[in-house]
Amino acid sequence: MKRTAKSPSSARLFEEAHAAPPAGVHVANIDGASRGNPGPAAYAVILRAPDGSKLCEFAKMIGRETNNVAEYYGLVAALDYAASHRIRALRVRSDSELLVRQMQGRYKVKNAALKPLYERAKKLSRALDYFVIEHVMREQNRDADALGNLALDRGGSVGTASRPESASSAAPRTTTRVSENLVTRQTIRATYKGGVFIPAEKIDLPEGVTLDLEFRISKRI
Fold this sequence. Notes:
By secondary structure, the protein is of the alpha+beta class. It folds into two domains: 10-155, 2-Layer Sandwich (Nucleotidyltransferase, domain 5), CATH 3.30.420.10; 173-214, no CATH class. 26% of the residues lie in helices and 31% in strands. Strands 5-4-1-2-3-6-8-7-11 form a nine-stranded mixed β-sheet, with helices on both faces. A two-stranded antiparallel sheet has the order 9-10. The termini are far apart.
């Protein structure tokens, strides 16, 4: 009996056959940084539109982690962004050989901390019509590296976009515009009384800063 091979998903078909990429491929440079390894860690994503123009960039601290965990956070963040913004074709560039080779199936994922992140990344990548991940040298990824280190320096989030947040998040989200080119994101909890928001904790902000507020109501009075 002649057996018919199962057709791979579109994303795997492109990757394995090395076919010419379709039109409209977005490019994401990702990076992960850890000071101490493990130590304070952050990821960064710089996403470019098919014409090469910068679409968005964002970075965020993730606590105390290794650089490999931070790299995977960057990959998942890029894939999450693509999914939530209906981007169907994505090329990811990373200077982490381990992450790239694992995603390509060349290296096994033996570290328990990486396995759930790897599985999440594979699931998201398979949902795309086209997905390729490639290894680049560090000097070709310096912008993402600098953005990740900026998040570490500032101790929070920076950029012009952020990962989609969980729908269960109850706290209002505050976007602080620091300059024309930099947006810092902070999450605060506040009470609304008499037409005024009263923060639950002290917020250290410069005078005259502009805040864009997006609300998630956790309790109705």
